[in-house]
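Revision sheet: structure tokens.
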Amino acid sequence: MNAPVRILGIDPGLRRTGWGVIDCEGARVSFVACGSVDPDPKLDLGPRLALLHEGLTRLIADFSPDEAAVEETFVNADSRSALKLGAARGVAMLVPAQAGLVIGEYAPNHVKKTVVGAGHAEKQQIRLMVKVLLPKAVISSDDAGDALAIALCHAQNRGMRALKQRLA
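Predicted:
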């Protein structure tokens, strides 16, 4: 029997960073908690990033995850927004790395395909499928639902990554 693994999924954002925690034991997954870190959007970039760092650090202390999964940044036409989002993603990668966690990175389409079965699924479809896979989940926002989907994607893909490492 595989030892249980706790996974923290993170959907980075400057206005709201969604997070979701699941436990994974073999093929079984169970809901632990979810929510979001919501820095005041009126603050300058530096203080918002500091609040994001503080919130994610507190989550790791509170839930003691073994691994983390972070969604890769979707690059849009507005380069200024993409750079700011990249800063939030940097914090979302830094905090678990500082805690010594294994971090998986997943493209949005890969998360959708893994959880819903279609790489261009809508938010409502993702939330519905997360509820099917984690029936006890109380999802407070789309960002929290996305973070749970990222954690589920990591749970599904971590076995393949471990197999590749053993074969290498």
